[in-house]
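RECORD TYPE: inverse folding
INPUT: structure tokens
STRUCTURE:
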């Protein structure tokens, strides 16, 4: 049975996570869409993703480089935005709290309009911005780091516990 947590309770729970911890999160976000010719006014993206919390980015990239037979001399650049909240898996930026994750696997995603009607990927794809290439890691398989606003998390399964967030 799923426990119900407020966003504040979720932040408190996440603040207590120590070490690498695997989780599944479901988020609801507003994707950035290109404006030119876009017939979709307000769209939501609902995603389910397996993630690792409390990971060491530099070490993860160097392990991937070792698997690929490359030098393990990667050094991470400083964050471009936000400030890591010490000893947590959280980042603060402009008064908002974000969950820092390493994406292990995308399980599912869908785009919906405000009425909850699904928009097929092939119809919305031309209006989504192109993803940037892996520029710094020098790996074939990119270590994907994503920061999710705590406000966008709808459900979470971590350490055998399932949470619904209100």
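DESIGNED SEQUENCE:
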């Amino acid at each position: 049975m799923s426990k119900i947590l407020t966003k504040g309770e979720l932040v408190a729970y996440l603040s207590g996570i120590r070490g690498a911890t695997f989780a599944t999160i479901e988020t609801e976000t507003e994707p950035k869409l290109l404006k030119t010719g876009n017939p979709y006014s307000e769209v939501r993206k609902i995603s389910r993703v397996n993630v690792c919390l409390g990971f060491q980015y530099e070490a993860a990239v160097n392990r991937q480089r070792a698997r690929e037979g490359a030098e393990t001399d990667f050094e991470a650049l400083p964050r471009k935005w936000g400030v890591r909240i010490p000893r947590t898996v959280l980042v603060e930026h402009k008064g908002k709290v974000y969950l820092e994750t390493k994406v292990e696997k995308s399980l599912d995603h869908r785009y919906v309009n405000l009425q909850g009607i699904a928009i097929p990927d092939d119809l919305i794809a031309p209006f989504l911005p192109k993803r940037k290439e892996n520029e710094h890691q020098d790996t074939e398989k990119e270590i994907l780091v994503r920061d999710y606003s705590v406000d966008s998390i709808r459900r979470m399964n971590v350490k055998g516990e399932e949470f619904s967030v209100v």
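NOTES: The two ends are 16 Å apart (CA to CA).
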